């Protein structure tokens, strides 16, 4: 069932479970191996390495684990600019596995500074906590509604490690230990989605080692994220409004929400079973559509401007009984494996750091919406009902007040980390600026303009001086209205 987690979870962030004070262990130089290498998707030679760190930082002589990392060397090292460390999302994404995509996205940044990609402990080659029993999920015929508590327990049984140490704060200790092992005095941070939560905790734990920070699509330390119902419904409502503002979309789908609500009623009554031509194989395939599959597939599209443009057409065609376009979106969700979520780490962090702090009335209020209802929270309840919980170092999840130059970016259309979240973080930081991009969704740096802003900020380290006029050139949201595209 691995594919399910990519579509249901965009960000999980860590908030303390048990308030307890811990003394920060004294930093020690760890054993490191680094060598020239090649990684998939990148033609040029890069640097790969392993850093041996304690599994438990309070007992550094006991069990250890190897943290995997990749360094994308700067093309021009003449200025010796501060390296940028990329903090991946999820939690559960392995940054090193996404090296080729990150290189394409941050090619301008890499011209003058190294980019460091670290597989967070519990991901990728840093003892990845992947659930083997989720591997055989059929995207078309299976429905995630059938997942049981036993599936979660079977996943848990796969791991022969002390899971209590696979958390956000120990990940930050790993990141800072790597900074030290690479003899970097100060580091620049880019965090996207859950990576913003990691960056904020880094700012609380080791502010003296950070030169500047970019927070893209913010998960504030003050908010227990996992309540995706209202944020998803907000993003869907903005899509409806933008469709009505677009003449072609309005003419093609004048009753879009009514059709969506009717479609929801249809799949709630009974899962739909339709025979469609397989989008990639071209052979007849049974396609089973439950409410969970419908909403999670559409919700995933809200994350990306490219995906959002298909949502009205897919809803309309499904309402008319043509489910092939929806099957095509499902096929896309099962494609790229580079950004896969390691479900074991996802559960381990969420179920201890977030889930216990959410009250029942919050769950109920979040489910009271016209888009995803309670779908975004159903699997949290299932997983966290059986997953063991561990103590959390609560003091590191307080609001961040470190005087570090910080650029905050939010997409107005974001279904999981709306601009109001960026406002929360902006209020507590003394040297920050929050830029909201009108025509962007989750992860703002997907646009060339935003990348230029990041590069300018990392160079000048003055958030107030950034020239953001290029943002007005980003075109309004457009939509596909028929099989050949838009009018």
UniProtKB/TrEMBL annotation:
SUPFAM superfamilies recorded = alpha/beta-Hydrolases
Question: In its keyword annotation, does this UniProt entry include Signal?
Answer: yes
Question: Mind listing the UniProt keywords for this protein, alphabetically?
Answer: Hydrolase, Signal
Spell out the InterPro entries in the cross-references: AB_hydrolase_1, AB_hydrolase_fold, AB_hydrolase_sf, Pept_S33_TAP-like_C, Peptidase_S33
Q: Where is the signal peptide?
A: 1-23
Domain AB hydrolase-1 as annotated: residue spans: 83-218
All residue ranges annotated as the Peptidase S33 tripeptidyl aminopeptidase-like C-terminal domain in the record: 379-470
Please state which protein family the record places this protein in: Belongs to the peptidase S33 family.
The name under which this protein is listed is Transporter
> Which organism encodes this protein?
Thalassotalea eurytherma
